[in-house]
Amino acid sequence: MDAVPEQAAGAAADAAEAAPGTQLNLDLYPGGCRRLLHLCAQQPLPLLRVEFLRLSTHEDPGLLEATLAQVPWSLLHLRSLVLKGGQNRGPLGACLRGALTTLPAGLSGLAHLAHLDLSFNRLETLPACVLQLHSLAALLLSHNGLSELPEALGSLPALTFLTATHNCLRRLPTALGASSTLQCLDLSENLLDAVPPEIGGLSSLCELNLASNQLRNLPASLAGLRSLRLLVLHSNLLTSVPVGLARLPLLMHLDLRDNQLRDLPPELLDAPFVRLQGNPLGKASPDGRTPPAAPQDPEMPRLFLTSDLDSFSVTPRGCSVTLASGVRLHFPAGAITTPLTIHYRLWLPEPGLVSLGPHDFLLSRVLELQPHSLAFQQAVSLWLRFEPPCARRCRQVVVRTRSDGRWSDLETHVEEEAPKVVRMAGRELRALLGEPDAAVSPLLCLSQSGPPEFLQPVTVQLPLPPGVSGFSVDRSRLHLLYRAPPTASWDDITAQVALELTHLYARFQVTHFSWYWLWYTTKTCVEGLARKAWARLRLHRVNLIALQRRRDPEQVLLQCLPRNKVDATLRRLLERYRGPEPSDTVEMFEGEKFFAAFERGIDVDADRPDCVDGRICFVFYSHLKNVKEVYVSTTLDREAQAVRGQVSFYRDSVPVDVPPEAEAARQKKSADALWIATLPIKLPRLQGAGGHWQGAGLSLMPLNLGDAETGFLTQSNLLSVAGRLGPDWPTVALHLGVPYRVLQRIRHEFRDDLDGQIRHMLFSWAEGHAGQPGAVELLVKALEQSDRQDVAEEVRAVLELGRHKYQDSIRRTGLAPEDPAGAPALQPSPPAQA
């Protein structure tokens, strides 16, 4: 054995002394085994107090075995031993398993050991010394190659926690059920096809995870786990579950997703703690029989893969595939032209696999599909599941794909499992109906953007209106209203459904996604009142703002905001913008159209798709930002004095000229007038030749990207490009030569504004390349390299239009070049004869 250098030995001794007398972490040190051997040979006093030892198994197997043999003799008070692989990563960032295949028999002498972690190694059988650790309470065996567990494992007297996920277990020892101390058992991601009935003897078991196995049925003895609180069984092949599970007194969470369940006990079917998505459940008919499921298209096979499969076949007729992890893929007919076998693999969600920004994080595992770079003839849909708490912390959820070494974003839609609920204040309702006892339930919206999941009627439980009890309610005053968007009408369907009332809820069945509203009133015809109430819910109190960018006052930001969001938005924007106070508060409906018109010498660049007769069109939605940035200009002489104009907001349509009645409405502030608000806009005086603006020590040259012969790109053209880039802008920026540190700074400065990030990057680059030859060609090439051929073609079309205009202008002036045949394009008149 080679000698340990003095410097390394000193570092190891410092590691032992740096811990508060109980911990020794050598898993992150290179050559940790050598350092521990050196410490064991010297026997420093702090080593005798160590109770927690972490050691990497990415070492030479012989050296690792020799080091572990010294542990029982040198660490007499050891209570926790972590011999875990996974510190090293493969080419794609996946954790690599360590070299540990067994343990020395001498480790059985660790009389105080309570925690043993052997995860991410190459164990195929459990070492015999583990079964002699009578103080062992927690045993972690995940990510190994275990095919079975020994019978004697159930005789460990102190074992409370056992996890053996991601192994190759095909059966469980029957003696495991004899353990009276085991509280948590995790055997997910294995090959189990059955569970022994003896497992029902685990009297202290609180958590049981058998997800992602091949289980087809469960023993009835599971109903004897009286201490069970959590039972996870998703991604199996279960067709039924024991009836007794519904009577477990402490059960708080039962996960049965993505199985093949067609029938469940009513107690479980209606229980709020049961998750059943991905099951072909049907409701039993009155005669006790289960009706057949809705007919499936025989040309569209449905595949449910177990955890031991890593591939599936796709034919030209398409298929729907559900992986053991819950990932779903839908291949429509015609997606491929010849039969194909697709291999898949799920990588752990680790940052080394994906290039993440400073505020990004992964929500799911990384799914790899092979063969790579395969082009489908039809769009293939992919569903990835992540927990709702993660979604609430995210501003944007994006599915990314890697091809040819590059990551790009896919078109992504987020589907929420929880329905949308809208509430109306009781005071507003009573004022609308003129009835003191009237009340309404929350407005329930059941909607989704994915494929329909209703094979049978679904039971909805809606809270009764406030102050109404199911035991004393007058049913004649109860009305269930229904609305199917996009229609605005509400229909009373009380007589068409069977309302089942409890003390707090009304239950009824629905067959498709829609809107439902429960009213309690003496009115007999409530459809018209519901339309008015719905309009009240859609009415928002908003303010309008108009700000000018400090570094470029010709760039104007217009935004319509709900009143409660104005202050926070202004605090964020006023670092980069300046302008007047927001407008007075006005009322605006959800989805209402309005226009912004620039007046008194201020014009807007009309080359915009949302510009109608020189007015910018808005559609207000309370959950969106309702923000637009435009470039304005003026025909007045700014070298003499500043231009003081304004921007006015109008409802619905805009007159060509501002009529006198609109001026009167501005004074009266009538709610029915077309005019909404007016805010001032000021363009400062130009100083010096060339159109330079001197302000705050900043000189901005007018944008001059390109040349007359090859074509110009104006500010409006670049603004249109910025509006098309979306999340692809960092890739475009890197191809434009923008340094990565500049990208990070832009992301930080505009972290809440994606549009601001794009515009700042693009216009900063354009200002730096204005007047330089080849700048436009560089932009087009960067767009093509970023797989944004659509935007590149749009830029080419703008350039081609500019070239045509240039050629036309020089022809009109008689300066056109000669044609290819050598004859001049325009023949001059012959000289007059003497």
TrEMBL record:
Kinase in keyword set: no
Death domain span: 714-799
PROSITE patterns referenced in this protein's UniProt entry, alphabetically: DEATH_DOMAIN, LRR, ZU5
GO biological process: signal transduction
Keyword Repeat: yes
Domain annotation ZU5: ranges: 308-522
UniProt keywords, alphabetically: Leucine-rich repeat, Repeat
Gene3D superfamilies xrefs: 2.60.220.30, Death Domain, Fas, Ribonuclease Inhibitor
Gene Ontology CC, one term: cytoplasm
Spans through the membrane: none
A family per Pfam: Death
Annotated segments matching region Disordered: 808-834
Domain of life where this protein originates: Eukaryota
Listed InterPro entries: DEATH-like_dom_sf (IPR011029), Death_dom (IPR000488), Leu-rich_rpt (IPR001611), Leu-rich_rpt_typical-subtyp (IPR003591), LRR_dom_sf (IPR032675), LRR_domain-containing (IPR050216), ZU5_dom (IPR000906)
Protein name according to UniProt: P53-induced death domain-containing protein 1 isoform X3
